[in-house]
């Protein structure tokens, strides 16, 4: 157990719909990152939040957006879902600082049909 | 651009065989290096990490990795694998500060009896 929890664990959506994924970070961790892991691939960085502000973004379109709340939990929102958005979405938290490791949740398996 | 290359897509070994998984990175500046493991149906777990100091780092479950700066490599090793080591292994790199992880595509290890 890492202390990072994600919900839901599985989700099926229709193309064009919108989805919200949630993440509770480990206690004391104020930095949350989201990753997309397609089948057979490594996790790809989507964006990162620190103290409720986005402070880094990967090569993902604007329909991928997020939020971080005062308790450091976070949401990932995806609008206008496409079939290629089907993937495992991972949330990771870590404390602010130079040499720290990231702790990952179990992920949310999103299937777009 | 930052990138991580894992040379082996799928490795099949017999129990008690020795393991070496290759990882090369391209990243400007100071690097922090990680190996994560993903057992079937489980979250990403940290095997070991390198921040500074001794380039030979030891992790959990008998794994070790060596950072060779001149070769931009961080190969993972284990002298004798077990069936329970069957999993997906990911090499990842990050820079100093709060920069996000960049992952390789992963290596699937299958250990057979």
Structure annotation, total helices of chain A: 0
From the alpha carbons, calculate the radius of gyration of chain A and give it in angstroms.
13 Å
How would the global form of chain A be characterised? globular
Q: Helix/strand-derived class of chain B?
A: mainly beta
- Indicate the mean pLDDT of chain B: 94
Biggest interface goes to: A-B, 29 and 26 residues
Low-confidence runs of at least 5 consecutive residues of chain A: none
How far apart are the termini of chain B? 41 Å
Task: Give the helix level of chain A as a range of percent.
Answer: under 10%
- Beta content of chain A: over 45%
Instruction: Work out the strand percent of chain B.
Output: over 45%
What is the number of strand segments of chain A? 11
Kindly report the average pLDDT value of chain A: 93
Overall shape of chain B = globular
The number of strands of chain B is: 12
What characteristics describe this protein?
heterodimer, A: 113 residues, mainly beta, seven-stranded mixed β-sheet, four-stranded antiparallel β-sheet, 11 strands, globular, B: 113 residues, six-stranded mixed β-sheet
Structure explained in plain terms:
The complex is a heterodimer of chains A (113) and B (113). With 113 residues, chain A is mainly β. Chain A is 0% helix and 50% strand. In chain A, strand 4 and strand 5 form a beta hairpin. The mean pLDDT of chain A is 93. Chain B is built from no helices and twelve strands. The relative contact order of chain B is 0.34. Chains A and B meet through strand 4, strand 5 and strand 10 of A and strand 5, strand 6 and strand 11 of B.
Give the secondary structure arrangement, pairings included.
The complex is a heterodimer of chains A (113) and B (113).
Chain A: E1 5-7, E2 10-13, E3 19-24, E4 31-37, E5 44-50, E6 53-57, E7 64-68, E8 74-78, E9 87-94, E10 103-104, E11 108-112
Parallel strand pairs in A: 2-11
Antiparallel strand pairs in A: 1-3, 3-8, 4-5, 4-9, 5-6, 7-8, 9-10, 9-11
Chain B: E1 3-5, E2 10-14, E3 19-21, E4 24-26, E5 32-38, E6 45-50, E7 56-58, E8 64-68, E9 73-78, E10 87-94, E11 102-103, E12 107-112
Parallel strand pairs in B: 2-12
Antiparallel strand pairs in B: 1-4, 3-9, 5-6, 5-10, 7-8, 8-9, 10-11, 10-12
